[in-house]
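Internal tracking record. Fields below are filled automatically when a chain is submitted to the structure queue. Please do not edit lines marked as system-generated. If the sequence contains nonstandard residues, flag them in the REMARKS field before resubmitting.
Queue: standard
Priority: normal
Entity type: single polypeptide chain
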Amino acid sequence: MTLKILLISLAVAIVLPRIPVVGKFFNIINTALHEFGHALMALMTGGEVRKIQLFQDTSGVTTTQSGNRLSAFFVSLAGYPFAVSIAWLSFYLVQQNASLALVVALSVLFFIMLLFWIRNGYGALWVVLFCAVNVFLIYKGNADHIQIAATFYAVMVLAESVYSAFVLLVLSLRDHNKAGDATNLEKLTHIPAVIWSLLFLAYTLWVVYRVWLMLSPVII
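SYSTEM-GENERATED OUTPUT FOLLOWS
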């Protein structure tokens, strides 16, 4: 990763979310990873994934069936840490000159989600369009363009992870019954939703710190 490519990706990541429709389209990358985190944990704990829905407002819902409270706990816990961890991994892959592998991996992952679990129209359309963009990039074979795309994806997922963690904290402070995963965890553990929100935010900011250390040789 070069400083030029990082700066281009950061600039695009700052500007793009403010463009109607297009900005939200790319923000859904984080949503899809978040929902897959729930789905993966459900499968790992012996549960069942009924369906995943991705919506135009960048929200998402994963419907699962867990065998017991412990597995339901891990499923509820998985979304936020999984998405931001993938952002961390994405920066690592770009640093290791594996941008193509990242672009391919994201496309394959989302296509698998479409085949098995995504069951709403917008979610299906989003996956098809996202994969089409990446197939076009791979077909053109321009290494710089692929690296810019991979860096951009990493920046978008990390930025949206931070934003969503702060939003969750605000929601848990305003109304603990409307704080999504934190609310579910509160019901399962009787630990206040705000505590879970703070834990999600703390881990997210720690990942930001680790990414900063990783990128320091490029930035400085």
